[in-house]
Design a protein that fits this description.
By secondary structure, this protein is of the alpha/beta class. Helix content is 31%, strand content 22%. It has a three-stranded parallel beta sheet with strand order 1-2-3.
Length: 91
């Protein structure tokens, strides 16, 4: 895991490279949309740019939320990046 550069509000700056293949609002969406995660990575085709899955906001990453991404990435021909944009808003 690597931490990327953020702006003055703590929002992750855009990556230099990569192809965004899926964007979800929260890490829980990754588990609920596990079939979509598998499909977009499988259908991404060949290329050299990493595949990027964007999570708009997350405070905690649970193993069960990440399992679909890890499973799909293990079969991918290209690197897969899971990008968390910002921490969740806490009340």
């Amino acid at each position: 895991m690597q931490t990327g550069a953020t702006d003055d509000q703590g929002v992750l700056e855009p990556p230099i490279g990569g192809e965004v293949v899926l964007s979800v609002p929260s890490p829980e969406s990754l588990e609920r949309q596990g079939d979509d995660v598998q499909r977009v990575i499988r259908q991404a085709g060949t290329g050299t740019a990493p595949l990027v899955i964007v999570v708009e906001a997350a405070e905690v990453l649970r193993q069960e939320d990440l399992e679909p991404v890890v499973a799909a990435a293990s079969r991918a021909s290209r690197p897969v990046i899971l990008r968390i944009i910002r921490p969740s808003e806490t009340a």
